[in-house]
């Protein structure tokens, strides 16, 4: 039928289904209980274009009336509304759009009586053992697979309340509808916390290899939880580790020991030259001689030389140049020992040693040249110097009172346990031959000190309490909570944060009771799309009224302040819209999806929308 001709009949499609939703033949269902044809109207292109009716909104009343109300009383009957929107304004001579009431449709709803009084049950209490209940079977278990050692009973409190709020005597609620207030339960067995034995102590670092500034080493041992406590058994300890300072011991003294120089071995180039110059003579010339070096530790003898490389003086030379005399060379005796250094002259004294010409060299003039073959050498006597070196690790920080020096005696009662103090390290004195001597030779008391500080205990720092939260139950008994942030965690043995706490906040809860009135957001239908500039068509804004109402059983909702409703659930009160111009093609919203056929694969479901085209 062409647009605008008049009314036409639209056939309705139907199908027959059984109780499981499977399509069956129409002969099994008989006559349909609904019309197979509905009157409709095909709009003309210049008519007002409107969308399909929307979904029915929630009923204004949850039930029919309250105490004393009568069926048919319009003040206590619920109503539902559904709306439709204007998609495009009419053109010249077209059918006008309906007014605001024409965009709404109402129907009655919730035509059943209200339940004014009802039972409210508090949470179940703990499972309490009752001797009269007897023991459970061996196969009975409680939650998490734990065995039950006894049969007990759980109780909970029942109260009779009014739907609008307030507690009533129990005889006001029907006993036949009262929930169970007592039930049997299984008491879990008492189990203490079971721990594994401690592990071995962790190894201590070598104190003689530590450098300055390293704190006193400690060693640890650990254990693990084999079974956690249950059923009121002894709980597990908070700490599963143990610590102790590493034992201290004196560091051994390492030193190098040298052996006599070996025979001088000619270098290859020097031996060839000498042998070629005077045939028949023994090889002579420049060579190299070596000696053995070993590492010794006091009281233990030979040790790995690598120990002396890190703990003793530099390693002595293992090789030095030498000369194998030729037959034509001047023959000299070996050097005599150095003369004794007089101690009374101090560091300014000298010591000498001598040698002499031997054999035919005594008669050879070229051997008597002093600058070529010196027969006397002198050198400054070694000064009797002493050096000090730190030995071992630093001590723990010692907090002192007044100006007393460390080592003056034991700490007195009342001495502070934190603050600034001193720590000590042993200092050894060595002479020029690396022999350990008295500390006085190095003008040292035998230790050195360094300023330190023992951190004072810091207690848990808490912020201010925030306001109490709303009651957890919107109706009846619940819990209200408040919290405050943990601004600083405890350290160095300070007072811990009071439980219960979680992450960086601690909480406090108190019981509360909320009025059983239901506060809910109610929104009116959307207004017609308002186009601010032309007023005819284009982009605009739709608005609607949103209010908070308290919903009772004895009448419609009563508007209250918005603070009583949850602000996060507040409906939108404005949205953008488009009002199509006359002659444009407009489409309705998508309709619902069609039903998916039963027990068939790879089928497609569809949904439709209506198209209104103008000016074509």
Structure description:
Residues 4-8, 66-72, 272-277 and 402-415 have low confidence and may be disordered. It is built from 2 helices and 42 strands. The chain is elongated and about 155 Å long. The chain has 616 residues and is mostly beta strands. The longest helix has 10 residues, at 268-277. Among the domains are: 43-115 and 518-612, no CATH class; 117-178, no CATH class; 461-488 and 498-514, TSP-1 type 1 repeat, CATH 2.20.100.
Main sheet overview: 5 strands, antiparallel
Give the distance, in angstroms, between the N- and C-terminal Cα atoms: 16 Å
Low-pLDDT windows of residues:
4-8, 66-72, 272-277, 402-415
**SS content category:** mainly beta
List keywords for this structure.
616 residues; mainly beta; TSP-1 type 1 repeat; 3% helix; 2 helices; elongated; 5-stranded antiparallel β-sheet; 4-stranded antiparallel β-sheet
Write the layout of secondary structure elements.
Elements lengths: L6 E5 L4 E2 L5 E2 L12 E5 L7 E2 L27 E6 L2 E3 L15 E6 L7 E5 L6 E2 L18 E8 L2 E5 L4 E2 L13 E7 L5 E2 L22 E5 L2 E3 L13 E5 L8 E5 L6 E2 L1 H10 L7 E6 L2 E5 L3 E3 L1 H7 L7 E6 L25 E5 L21 E5 L5 E6 L6 E2 L19 E13 L4 E2 L9 E8 L6 E2 L13 E13 L12 E2 L2 E10 L3 E6 L14 E6 L2 E6 L6 E3 L13 E6 L6 E2 L23 E2 L4
Antiparallel strand pairs: 1-4, 2-3, 5-7, 6-8, 9-12, 10-11, 11-14, 12-13, 15-17, 16-18, 19-22, 20-21, 21-24, 22-23, 25-26, 27-29, 28-29, 29-30, 29-31, 32-33, 33-35, 34-35, 36-38, 37-40, 38-39, 41-42
